[in-house]
Amino acid sequence: MSCPMKDFDINGVRKDRVVTTSNGYQLNAPFATQRIGEHGPLLLQDNALLDNLAHFNRERIPERNPHAHGSGAFGYFEVTHDITDICGSAMFDTIGKKTKCVTRFSTVGGEKGSADTVRDPRGFATKFYTEEGNLDWVYNATPIFFIRDPSKFPAFIHTQKRNPQTNLKDADMFWDFLTTPSNQVAIHQLCILFSDRGIPKSYRNMDGFSGHAYKWSNKKGEWHYVQVHLKTDQGIKCYTSEEAAIIAGRDPDICHRDLFENIEKGNAPSWTVYIQTMTEEESKHLPFSVFDLTKVWPKAQFPLRPVGKLVLNENPQNFFAQIEQAAFAPSNTVPYQEASADPVLQGRLFAYADAQRHRIGPNYNQVPVNCPLSKGFFNPLIRDGAMNVNGNFGSESNYYNTNSKYEFLEQSRPIQEHQEIWNGPAVPYEWVTSSGDIDFIQATTLYRKVLSKQDGAQARLAHNVAIHAANCKSTDLQKKVVDMFSRVDEQLGNDIRTEISAINSSNGKPKL
Ligand code: HEM
Q1: 67: annotated active-site residue
Q2: Domains of the chain
């Protein structure tokens, strides 16, 4: 038996607007509670009251851990350039083709209600409802990342959250993890995080990056490593640390408001989508591993090639249903777009769907925002579980019954030739910071060649690190911060030391 949905709109609002309890019994006096006399004790038989109070207690689902705080909108991706020599996915097959999508922007370390203007990387996750299934690009607004071993992710995120005893954000935890020699591979990401780009003015004013190398192939079976860049058409705009601190108090939801209100008034933000491509042969001659997402691919050698536009032009009708319950995962992919062997990406292939089974429930893909729109899903083995609401495939057998007809479509893609060949003993391996300054080179280039061209940007990087690290209780730790940034450039280390020392003096702490 199915619900009489004809009497409801698509959001579940009853068309005659008669209000009922959740079992459909009409509510006559919404605030009257059954009781003995006017002021006597209440009666357990009052289902309307129990329904109301009990459901309220169950309104919250666990917030994401990490990326709890975020905003989102719907829109479309439009192909503007032919890249069928690189990728055979149907979403790219025709110039002008549009694919519906939903994007969620987020901060990383803060709780669901935390301020928009914190210094923290921003998430930029998009789900494309393609005709070949849902494809998720779960990206950040920085081109690189802090770690290159997935095993370090929980510890790293813990250091961005609250101290287990004080329940406070803790600069000592933050810098202790990041200055640990084996973790200093984060230096490049730290230089971006503490640069002018560390606090975007709005979600509309920042870029998105795949960070990882992905592996895309064409219909001939040829493949490339690919990085995706989404460049904002609104221009990059950011806050200084001081501006951000004031706004965090005055209007903590400023980025959320900015996104919603701009879309509401028809000012749809857009991003131009580019790819960088690399052959397997080229990857063998890189000074770093193609699977190391702490490194950028030099644009002179791997130029940006335009692909299309991402446009966000539709606000959600209901934040919880469409954004809080949205489930993005790098493992949600479509033909011709594969994960590479990057170990962090491989770890992520497990982590997201696992988090969503816990956060939303095992049938999270039945929530409308997560359903594959084009053909839905049918698999008689994926059955039952909490909150199964799609009819559960009715009387279909729950195994591949030999008397039933199933269509297993033949893979029409050519087998990729010249595959990567993996060979070696199964050994435990920790990809620690490399000896020498190899992992510092790109950070040094950023400091000396890029920030030097922007008036005062080097000094602001030093200032932003110093005012954060000055919060460390331990001066030994502050010295480690200075030593680490001195490896990027001595001037940077000196500037940080001078400012931390000045702040320490005014707080009655020793100079460095
Ligand atoms: C080993 C490394 C990583 C692990 C284990 C990991 C794990 C997670 C988990 C469990 C969530 C919450 C998912 C949910 O509850 O729906 C999440 C969210 C997210 N992660 Fe990661 N992550 C890793 C690295 C990265 C990297 C490198 C990027 C970007 C390149 C990234 C981008 C995001 C984004 C954008 C979200 C928020 C998605 C949304 O808006 O729902 N993560 N991550």
Answers
A1: yes
A2: 1-59 (4.10.91.20), 70-141+200-368 (2.40.180.10), 147-199+436-512 (1.20.1370.60)
